[in-house]
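pasting input
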Amino acid sequence: MGRSPCCEKSHTNKGAWTKEEDDRLITHIKSHGEGCWRSLPKAAGLLRCGKSCRLRWINYLRPDLKRGNFTEDEDELIIKLHSLLGNKWSLIAGRLPGRTDNEIKNYWNTHIRRKLINRGIDPATHRPITDHHTNNITTTTTTSAANSSPEIGPTTTISFASTTPTAPSTTHHLMIKNEELDQDIKFHINTPDCRKIKNISPENQERCPDLNLELRIGPPHLHHNQSDMVLSSSSYTQQLHHHKLMTGGMNSGGGTICFGCSLGVKNGKECSCTSSLNGNSNGYDFLGLKNGVLDYRSLEMK
DNA sequence: AAACGCAGCAACCGCCTCCCA
DNA sequence: ATGGGAGGCGGTTGCTGCGTT
């Protein structure tokens, strides 16, 4: 039993939009705002499906669209984000102001795919096409006493680093609160700068690495009754696999920080929090963090 | 000049998720 | 708890314009 169609197809236009239809849609949205797509066509006097109106507006008519050729910086950013997120075009688009998911998807399929193939990189996996023995994603866990301090305790690091040469990178930090374990999990996300890597050597250019997701996990502030707790990295990661972790934004204590703020998109599209430190990040939806819940599995590489 | 092939992109389709009654 | 409506998303299609033969 299929779902009912979103509109009466026999009474709707299809195909390319006319100038008049565009004008009607723009006029209606300017005076009534976005939303209620199902009822919009009738209200705007359009013989179109509501979905079609939404798509036309979002992909073509929105005033904040950038349009025009993608810059080299945008290319590299798309590649980085795709290596991390896969075909999550809407998430990728969210990091490129003025670009739409459809535009990025088309651009990927027509330009970037070919570009990567020419570089000898599999666009699906972001690994060298011919080399199966290098650049594999490695997952390692280490416990660092060097990071220990009376306040933050030892740190467990789960590294998803690819085996690429050392490269200039930027590190972002994210604290996530696991309420069940009553501990904070600290995420260190290294984002190697491909443009800088290009200046190193052609070989390293070929290996322009993926986003390096390095997760560091550490008990936050050892509470008095926790100070003698010993938690091996393996047991900790096992627990990670079995718990949905609450983001810091859901917990007001502990000085946790919103992922959006941490990535420098505070109060941007992905971040609705009002303070970077009081951790009110409800609604943040990047990397599956919607509603303040991080499903650990959502961080798996495709 | 015409035919053909290909690339680019706008638009469609169907499935999924979220929200609300 | 559940079912349906609405919006969102990703894959795919098909039209158009350009280059080549």
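fyi The longest helix of chain A spans residues 101-118.
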